[in-house]
Amino acid sequence: MTLTTYCEPMRSVSVDAVTTEHVLDILKPLWNKVPETASRLRGRIEKVLDAAKAKGYRTGENPARWRGHLDHLLPKRQKLTRGHHKALPYNDVPALIARLRQTSSVSALCLEFTILTAARSGEAMGACWEEFDLERGVWTDPKERMKAGREHRVPLSHRAKQILGIMAEIRTGDLVFPGQKRDRPLSTMALEMVLRRMKADVTVHGFRSAFRDWAAEQTSVPREVAEAALAHVLENKVEAAYRRSDLFEKRRGLMEQWAQHCEEGC
User: Fold this and answer.
1) What is the mean pLDDT of residues 184-209?
2) Range name among 78-82, 115-119, 189-193 with the lowest pLDDT average
3) Extents of the domains making up the chain
4) Is the pLDDT of residue 167 over 90?
């Protein structure tokens, strides 16, 4: 998907004629804007050109090689300015959700589920059916997939459960949101492409910021409840040691309110 999307300008170039200039023309517009995507794209181009050389379709050095080549022409990723993830104002989320529902693709459903649960994209994309208790409306995200390294319970709103119902009807394996291969999850790029096609100037992660702003400005829930919904680790170690509860029941009401807000334009 990444190659098909971003390498369109290079498709007319014979594989033995691809130069460093061609590669830079593809990477430069993305390098600062979406560094993760640009880095993955560079790696994929490098692999394609390596394979072409191995099969005798081209000779010479690989113009997409990083070490000793592109590392002199592009800024190293750790030196890139890492600004905040682009977020959509929370009042604009309902209109985006309404547009999102005009398609029934797995990627669109996964993106909406990610927004509704305020989850990180990797948590939603890797979700397996065994993690869900639909009767109790709970998604138990295992610690292996959590940034904080600990299990996280997510209360499921009415709409989140509807999405799971839709995916259950087309279930092909253990993954709730499978990619093109049923045993592999969707890629982050798949979700980014949904937003790209909608011309939405926002990142998937930015919806977590929208949720946090909405919770702070439009609800009366304490800050720690919203932070718990985002699975953030408390910075105050003393407070963290004393807070034994994950505030699940308080978060249940919050997530239902968030879902209702998201559906205002539907």
Assistant:
1) 89
2) 78-82
3) 2-79, 90-262
4) yes
Amino acid identity at 149: G
At 2, the pLDDT band (50, 70, 90 cuts) reads low
Tell me if 2-79 shares its fold with 90-262.
no
Cβ atoms of 141 and 119 closer than 8 Å: yes
> What does pTM read for this prediction?
0.67
Among the CATH numbers 3.20.20.480, 3.90.1150.10, 1.10.443.10, 3.60.21.10, which is that of 90-262? Answer: 1.10.443.10
Could you tell me which of 34, 42, 9 has the C-alpha nearest to residue 191? 34
CA distances from 266 to 96, 159, 187, 213 (A): 10, 12, 27, 21
Q: Which two structure tokens, joined as six digits, stand for 258? A: 């968030």
67-71: Cβ within 8 A, 24+ apart: 69/20, 70/20, 70/23, 70/24, 70/27, 70/42
Say how far residue 218 (Cα) sits from the centre of its chain: 25
DSSP three-state, residue 240: helix
What are the structure tokens assigned to 170, written together?
A: 């087309």
Task: State residue 80's pLDDT score.
Answer: 45
Amino acid, single-letter form, for residue 236: N
- Beta-bridged to residue 182, according to DSSP, are none
Handedness of CA 147, 153, 156, 162 (dihedral sign): positive
List, in order, residues 6 or more apart from 154 with CB less than 8 Å away. Answer: 117, 119, 138, 139, 140, 141, 255
Which pair of tokens denotes residue 82? Answer: 């890492």
Q: Which DSSP state fits 181? A: S
The CATH number that domain 2-79 falls under is: 1.10.150.130
DSSP 16-32: GG--HHHHHHHHHHHHT
**33: its two tokens:** 């804007």
